[in-house]
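Input (structure):
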C-alpha cells in the first residue's frame, strides 16, 4: 500500500468520527472506537537496540556501540531483526487482546541527536558526534526497521527534533541557541536524510530551539520539516513535552493553550496528558475541527501503512520463536564484536594465548554486571554472558577468580552506603598470583542516562561533570596494577572515558566495550583470546578528563567534536580511531567517477600482518572557503572490508557531494570556493591519529 492510498483510506475513516473521537485519537494511548471497528492502540514503543520494555527480546549493543562498528550494513541487519521480533510480539499481543503500552509497531527510534558533548548521559542512545555517521547509520536503521514490502514492517521515528543533547537537568525548560550555520551543518542534516529515506515519524524535543518550543515550532515543524523537506509522516511530542510549553517554558499561560499551540503548529500526536485538553481548546475556539481532522488523518495514514486494518495482517506469519532466536543471537554476537574498540595494546600484548594464562582474575564493578551489558531503553534477553561468564567459556582450562572489588562510585555520606559494596580486599585477593587481570570498569544506566536525580563529584542528573572514572574505581585499578603485572582494562560505558595517564602507563591494554548487549561478555573474552581481530572505531572524541570542553549549555559548535576541535588540544583518542591485531596498508587511490552529485573512489587495502581482520575504510574531506569557517576534517564515506592475512582487496567508496560542501553563515550549503582534499585510511588524518596509528593515509585533490 503506497502513501496516497493509505491517506485516502485514513481520510474516509476519520470523516466518520465525531469531534470528540478525533481528539481522542491524537493521544499516544488512543482508545477504541467500537462503532467504527477501531481497536485501542498505544503508540508508545521503544526499540533503540532491540524491542524494549516488552519482555524477552534480543538485546543488541546499544546505539553508540553500533555506531562504533562503522558498518551500515550491520545496522540494517540489526534493525531488520528488531522489526521481525516486534512483529512476532505484536502478532501474539493481538491474538490475546493485549494492546497496552509497548505492544505496538510504532517505535520511537532511532535517536539521531548529535553527541556534541561527551558529558551527556543520553549520548549512549545516539550514533555519535558526527552528522555523516549519524545520518548514515540512522538511515540504514530506518530502512531495516521499516522494510521494503507492501506495508511497513514497523514504523521508525527520528528523535529528538531538534538541537537536543543536554544538560538533562535543564531539558524541560532549556532554550538551545544555535545559529543558522550550526543548524544546517550539524544539527539538522541527519533529520533531513532520514526524512529523505522515508522515516514514518519524527519526535519533537523537550527544549526550545531559538525561543520556539520544539513541539510547537513553526520553524522546525512547519517551515523546515513539512514545507522544505516535504515530510509526510506523523509528528509526535516527547513524553510530557507539550505540558512543558506552559509549565516550564512559560511560552503560553495554560495547559489548554499549550495543547492548542502544539496542535496548530503540527504536532499530530501527544505522548503525555496535554492533549486531554484538546476539547477544552476546541470549545474555547483555540483550535478548529479541521486541525483535529488533519492530525487524525496523519496518524491513521501510518496505521493503515502498518496494515492494521487489513483482513489478513501483513507479517502475521512471523512466529513467536523468533524472539532472541539462535539466528539473532549470532547477529548480536557479531554486532558486539564489531563494536569493540581496542584503544591501547602496549607491545602487542593482546591477543593472549589461553594455554599460557592459567590463573585469571576478572575484577571490577562490571565484571559480572548484566545491566552494564544492557544500557538503557532495553529489552530482556533470554541469555546473558557477562565478562566473567565469557572468560569462563573462552578460557575453560584456566582458574577464573571473580570479584567486584568496588562499586561504580562511592557515596560521599556514610549513611548512603546501605546496599553498597566496597570490598577492595576481595578484589585484590582475587588478583594475587594471577597471570592476567581483566579489570571491568565504567558505568551503567543507574548513573548515566535520562533525567536522573544523582548529583556528586562525577555525575549530575544522568550526565557527567568529568570524563574520568570515579576515584573508587581508579583506586582499585592502581592497586591491582601493583599486584599483577599483566592488567587489561575493559571499560563499559555509554561515552568516552579517560582512565588517566598514570593508569594507562601501567596496563597492557585498554578495550572500550560500550554497553555491548546481552552477549557482550563473550565478545570481550573472544577478543582477548584472539578469536577475532577488533575493528571498532571511536564514534566520538575521547578528551582528557580535565580538558576545557566548552560550557555544556553552549550549543555553538566552536571547539566541539573532531570537526571544530581546537587544534592545540591533544586528545586521548581521536574520532575514528581503533586498533586491530594486524597491519593495514593503503595504496592505489583513484577517482573513478566525479559528477555534481557524487564522487567514486577506489583504493587497495593490503593486510601486511599474519592475522585476518575486518577494517573500516574511512574517507575524510578537508576543504577551504573564504566565506566561512570549515571543519578540520569531515567524514564523508565509510566501507567495511575483511582482508585475510597477506591478502589485498580493492574497495570502492561513494561520496555524496552533500557532505563535502561548505555551509555558509546563513545555513546555505554550497560548493567550496577553495580546494578540496580527500584522505583515505582506516582513521582520521589528524596529528594525534598519526601518533597512535600504524596505518598510512592517502590523499587526493578533487
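Output (sequence):
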Amino acid at each position: 500500500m503506497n502513501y496516497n492510498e493509505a491517506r485516502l483510506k485514513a481520510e474516509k475513516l476519520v470523516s466518520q468520527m465525531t469531534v470528540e473521537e478525533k481528539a481522542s485519537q491524537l493521544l499516544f494511548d488512543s482508545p477504541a472506537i467500537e462503532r467504527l471497528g477501531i481497536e485501542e492502540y498505544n503508540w508508545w514503543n521503544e526499540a533503540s537496540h532491540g524491542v524494549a520494555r516488552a519482555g524477552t527480546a534480543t538485546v543488541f549493543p546499544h546505539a553508540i556501540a553500533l555506531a562504533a562498528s562503522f558498518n551500515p550494513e550491520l545496522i540494517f541487519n540489526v534493525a531488520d531483526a528488531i522489526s521481525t521480533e516486534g512483529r512476532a510480539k505484536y502478532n501474539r499481543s493481538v491474538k490475546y487482546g493485549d494492546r497496552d503500552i509497548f505492544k505496538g509497531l510504532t517505535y520511537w527510534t532511532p535517536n539521531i541527536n548529535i553527541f556534541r558533548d561527551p558529558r551527556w548521559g543520553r549520548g549512549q542512545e545516539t550514533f555519535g558526534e558526527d552528522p555523516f555517521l549519524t545520518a548514515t547509520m540512522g538511515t540504514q536503521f530506518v530502512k531495516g526497521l521499516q522494510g521494503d514490502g507492501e506495508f511497513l514492517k514497523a514504523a521508525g521515528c527520528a528523535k529528538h527534533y531538534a538541537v537536543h543533547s543536554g544538560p538533562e537537568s535543564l531539558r524541560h525548560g532549556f532554550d538551545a541557541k544555535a545559529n543558522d550555520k550550526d543548524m544546517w551543518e550539524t544539527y539538522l542534516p541527519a533529520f533531513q536524510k532520514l526524512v529523505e529515506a522515508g522515516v514514518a515519524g519524527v519526535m519533537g524535543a523537550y527544549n526550545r530551539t531559538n525561543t520556539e518550543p520544539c513541539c510547537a515550532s513553526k520553524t522546525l515543524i512547519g517551515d523546515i520539516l513539512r514545507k522544505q523537506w516535504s515530510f509526510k509522516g506523523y509528528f509526535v511530542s516527547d513524553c510530557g513535552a507539550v505540558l512543558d510549553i506552559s509549565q516550564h517554558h512559560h511560552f503560553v499561560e495554560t495547559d489548554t493553550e499549550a495543547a492548542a499551540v502544539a496542535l496548530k503548529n503540527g504536532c499530530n500526536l501527544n505522548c503525555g496528558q496535554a492533549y486531554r485538553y484538546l476539547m477544552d481548546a476546541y470549545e474555547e475556539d483555540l483550535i478548529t475541527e479541521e486541525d483535529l481532522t488533519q492530525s487524525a488523518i496523519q496518524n491513521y495514514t501510518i496505521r493503515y501503512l502498518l496494515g492494521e486494518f487489513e483482513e489478513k495482517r501483513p507479517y502475521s506469519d512471523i512466529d513467536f520463536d523468533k524472539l532472541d532466536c539462535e539466528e539473532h543471537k549470532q547477529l548480536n554476537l557479531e554486532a558486539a564484536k564489531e563494536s569493540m574498540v581496542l584503544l591501547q595494546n602496549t607491545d602487542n600484548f593482546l591477543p593472549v594465548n589461553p594455554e599460557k594464562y592459567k590463573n585469571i582474575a576478572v575484577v571490577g564493578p562490571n565484571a559480572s554486571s548484566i545491566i552494564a551489558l544492557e544500557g538503557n531503553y532495553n529489552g530482556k534477553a533470554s541469555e546473558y554472558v557477562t565478562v566473567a561468564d565469557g572468560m569462563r567459556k573462552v578460557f575453560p582450562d584456566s582458574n577464573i577468580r571473580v570479584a567486584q572489588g568496588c562499586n561504580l562510585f562511592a557515596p560521599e555520606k556514610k549513611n548512603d552506603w546501605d546496599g553498597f559494596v566496597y570490598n577492595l580486599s576481595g578484589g585484590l585477593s582475587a588478583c594475587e598470583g594471577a597471570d592476567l587481570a581483566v579489570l571491568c570498569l565504567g558505568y551503567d544506566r543507574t548513573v548515566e542516562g535520562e533525567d536522573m536525580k544523582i548529583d556528586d563529584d562525577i555525575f549530575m542528573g544522568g550526565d557527567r561533570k568529568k570524563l574520568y572514572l570515579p576515584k573508587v574505581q581508579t583506586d582499585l585499578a592502581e592497586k591491582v596494577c601493583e599486584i599483577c603485572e599483566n592488567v587489561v582494562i575493559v571499560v563499559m560505558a555509554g561515552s568516552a572515558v579517560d582512565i588517566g595517564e598514570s593508569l594507562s602507563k601501567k596496563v597492557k591494554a585498554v578495550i572500550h566495550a560500550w554497553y555491548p548487549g546481552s552477549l557482550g561478555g563473550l565478545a570481550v573474552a573472544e577478543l582477548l583470546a584472539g578469536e577475532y581481530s577488533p575493528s571498532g572505531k571511536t564514534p566520538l572524541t575521547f578528551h582528557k578528563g580535565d580538558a576545557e570542553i566548552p560550557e555544556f549549555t553552549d550549543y555553538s559548535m566552536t571547539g566541539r567534536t573532531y570537526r571544530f576541535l581546537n587544534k592545540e588540544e591533544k586528545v586521548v583518542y581521536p574520532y575514528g580511531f581503533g586498533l586491530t591485531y594486524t597491519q593495514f596498508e593503503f595504496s592505489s587511490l583513484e577517482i573513478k567517477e566525479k559528477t555534481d552529485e557524487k564522487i567514486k573512489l577506489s583504493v587497495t587495502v593490503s593486510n601486511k600482518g599474519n592475522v585476518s581482520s575486518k577494517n573500516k575504510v574511512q574517507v575524510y574531506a578537508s576543504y577551504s572557503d573564504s566565506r566561512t569557517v570549515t571543519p578540520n576534517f569531515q567524514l564523508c564515506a565509510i566501507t567495511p572490508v575483511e582482508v585475510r592475512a597477506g591478502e589485498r582487496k580493492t574497495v570502492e567508496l561513494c561520496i555524496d557531494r552533500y557532505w563535502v560542501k561548505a555551509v555558509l553563515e546563513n545555513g546555505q550549503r554550497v560548493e567550496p570556493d577553495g580546494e578540496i582534499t580527500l584522505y583515505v585510511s582506516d582513521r582520521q588524518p589528524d596529528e594525534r591519529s598519526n601518533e597512535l596509528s600504524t596505518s598510512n593515509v592517502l590523499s587526493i585533490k578533487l
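Notes: The first helix runs from residue 3 to 14. Residues 661 and 671 are 5 Å apart (CA to CA).
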